[in-house]
């Protein structure tokens, strides 16, 4: 058997293997598995997004709580000062008014910050709720996924002996093919499923284009790799 016949045999085994893989991956269970996998990935992305958002908001919350503590501290100070002033006969009415104004201003800021804090706490709660809901959905998708994966694994086991046999066959044939020829084949294989085609009745078996007699002669001579002028496939004459 010539090297090109070997390569042809290799290609046939490879195509058979591809067909088997396609058949395995197109079963309804496998399709369901792929779909659920996609759903799971999307849900995890959503959860990750929510969690990042929650972290940001928690950091905001901590910073606002510190601000509130500082304001309350300032309020306490101002209030004690006012208490002292109110018992101090030397304190002027202007000083008292100023102190009261400062306290009012602080109360205003404390109230505004409290409202902001409450709104933020509420939004964090909602976010946490969304995370829980998405987790529950993801949990269901994960259970469905695990169940269908088991079925797919069983299906795969059914294909395994044939796939194994073909893989071994490919390895065995490969060792009989020279590297240069195999490289040409592999490069072409990246874009075409069948890089080698028989030449019969002066036509390329791949694209069916009629080729000049000289091409057929070169293929028959078998000294070099001859490729179809039209589609680029490696040509060979069946022996
Ligand atoms: Zn061709």
How would you characterize the overall build of this protein?
The radius of gyration is 39 Å and the shape is rod-shaped. A hairpin with a 2-residue loop joins β1 and β2. The protein is mainly α. It has a 3-stranded mixed β-sheet. α1 packs across α3 and α2 runs antiparallel to α3. It is built from 5 helices and 3 strands. It folds into 2 domains: about 170 residues, Helix Hairpins; about 55 residues, no CATH class. The structure holds zinc ion (ZN).
Task: Give a short overview.
This protein is mostly helical. The chain has helices at 3-25, 28-87, 93-174, 179-189, 213-221; strands at residues 196-200, 203-204, 234-236.
Which descriptors apply to this entry?
239 residues; mainly alpha; Helix Hairpins; 2 domains; 3-stranded mixed beta sheet; 5 helices; 4% strand; rod-shaped; binds zinc ion
Q: In angstroms, what is the radius of gyration? A: 39 Å
Bound molecules: zinc ion
Query: How many helical stretches?
Result: 5
CATH class categorisation of the largest domain: Mainly Alpha
Task: Give a short account of the largest sheet.
Answer: 3 strands, mixed
Structural class based on helices, strands and sheet pairing: mainly alpha
Helix content: over 70%
What is the terminal separation in angstroms? 8 Å
The coarse overall form would be: rod-shaped
Average the pLDDT over all residues and give the rounded result.
Answer: 94
Tally of separate domains: 2
> How much of the residues is beta strand, in percent?
under 5%
Q: How many individual β-strands?
A: 3
The CATH topology of the largest domain: Helix Hairpins
CATH architecture type of the largest domain:
Orthogonal Bundle
Order of helices and strands: HHHHEEHE
């Amino acid at each position: 058997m010539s090297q090109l016949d070997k390569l042809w045999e290799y290609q046939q085994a490879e195509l058979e293997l591809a067909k088997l893989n396609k058949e395995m991956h197109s079963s309804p269970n496998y399709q369901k598995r792929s779909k659920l996998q996609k759903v799971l990935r999307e849900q995890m992305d959503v959860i990750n997004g929510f969690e990042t958002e929650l972290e940001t908001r928690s950091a905001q919350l901590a910073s606002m709580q510190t601000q509130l503590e500082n304001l309350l501290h300032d309020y306490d100070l101002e209030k004690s000062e006012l208490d002292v002033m109110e018992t101090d006969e030397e304190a002027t009415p202007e000083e008292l008014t100023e102190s009261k104004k400062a306290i009012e201003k602080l109360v205003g800021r404390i109230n505004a910050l409290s409202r902001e804090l409450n709104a933020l706490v509420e939004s964090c709660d909602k976010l946490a709720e969304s995370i829980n809901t998405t987790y529950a959905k993801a949990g269901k998708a994960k259970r469905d996924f695990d169940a269908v994966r088991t079925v797919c694994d069983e299906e795969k086991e059914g294909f395994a002996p044939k796939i194994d046999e073909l893989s071994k066959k490919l390895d065995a044939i490969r060792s009989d093919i020279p590297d240069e020829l195999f490289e040409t084949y592999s490069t072409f294989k990246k874009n075409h499923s069948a890089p080698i085609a028989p030449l019969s009745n002066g036509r390329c078996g791949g694209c069916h284009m009629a080729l000049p007699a000289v091409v057929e002669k070169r293929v028959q001579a078998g000294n070099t790799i001859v490729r179809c002028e039209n589609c680029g496939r490696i040509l060979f004459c069946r022996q």
